[in-house]
Amino acid sequence: MENKNNVSEFIFLGLTQDENLQRVCFGVFLVFYVAILLGNLLIIVTIKSSPRLTSPMYFFLSYLSFIDVCYSSITTPKLLADFLVKKKAISYISCMAQLFLFHFFGCAEIFLLTVMAYDRYVAICKPLHYTTIVSKNVCSWMVALSWVGGFLHSMIQTLLTVNLPFCGPNEIDHYFCDVQPLLKLACTDTYFVGVIVVANTGMISLSCFLVLIVSYIVILVTLRTRSAEGRLKALSTCASHITVVILFFGPCIFIYMRPSITFSEDKSVAVFYTIITPMLNPLIYTLRNEEVKNAMRKIHIKVTVTSEQDMIHVSYVLLDVTL
Mind telling me which GO cellular component terms the entry cites (predicted)? Predict the structure, then answer.
């Protein structure tokens, strides 16, 4: 990724230029980021330590939480640091690395959410064959293909951007390095690259979203023949996933379906899929899922009992030493 032009760094304009508002944003987004880390790590620990949460749905959910932690960590720490400084600079190499990792984890999440919809489709529409169709090996392959798809997509985006010449303005009207804002700074015609970006990122987002919509339409049609209790349980499980899909895919389609066009609202919209959605995912999946909540309660009780036993043991040891 050798940069053969006279731009060695880029300057972010950030979310706002108001210094007082930047301090407020620092506190708010710091709370958001801590919530992302704690919430998603709690989901991972709960699923990995609970013997009852072994279905494919929880297997995929643990990977979704892992991706959310990585995905938000690509942009949020830099955003927080930039709230505290006047010059929001990033080197050329770091910018390209951020671009690659951002699209890598973002596209992997898109594919994983699509896989999770397929898992729900099989569980509801073909329950007798569920364990055979969605076996452990199949789940592992689906996750692996999500990672591979994210890598291939990200490589295309990064290679397209690296080969652009940057020879003048270096101010990015955003808070992280993305293809669309960088296309505006390139000193060459970027129409063809913009079309490829739409064909790559935009069509992936839109096609996966349409697949998700079709799968849930089929699920809803299938539920018409089920009992009221069965419909309620299935809808409760699917509602969480549908909520996450809308929050994540909506802003992505809005931004990446436009070739070489950026709006001032884009960076505000980007906050939804880089920070808000990763923060809400643990709440969405736990508040509507009794199995996860029960597993968390058991872990809390186990940790509390262990801590009390350790304190009692330490007290006895201190008492023996004193006597």
Answer: plasma membrane
Bridging pattern class, strands 89-91 and 9-12:
antiparallel
pLDDT at 144: 95
Sheet with 9-12: strands ordered across: 89-91, 9-12, 171-172
User: pTM of the entire structure?
Assistant: 0.86
Phi-psi region of 260 (alpha: psi -120 to 50; beta: other; left: phi over 0): left
Mark 91-119 as b/e (b = at least 16 C-beta within 10 Å). Answer: ebeebbbbbbbbbbbbbbbbbbbbbbbbb
Q: Round to whole Å and give the CA distance between 287 and 266.
A: 30
- Residue 314's pLDDT is 47
Q: Going by CATH, does the domain composed of 9-317 fall within 1.20.1070.10?
A: yes
255 Cβ neighbours under 8 A, 6+ residues apart: 180, 266, 269, 270
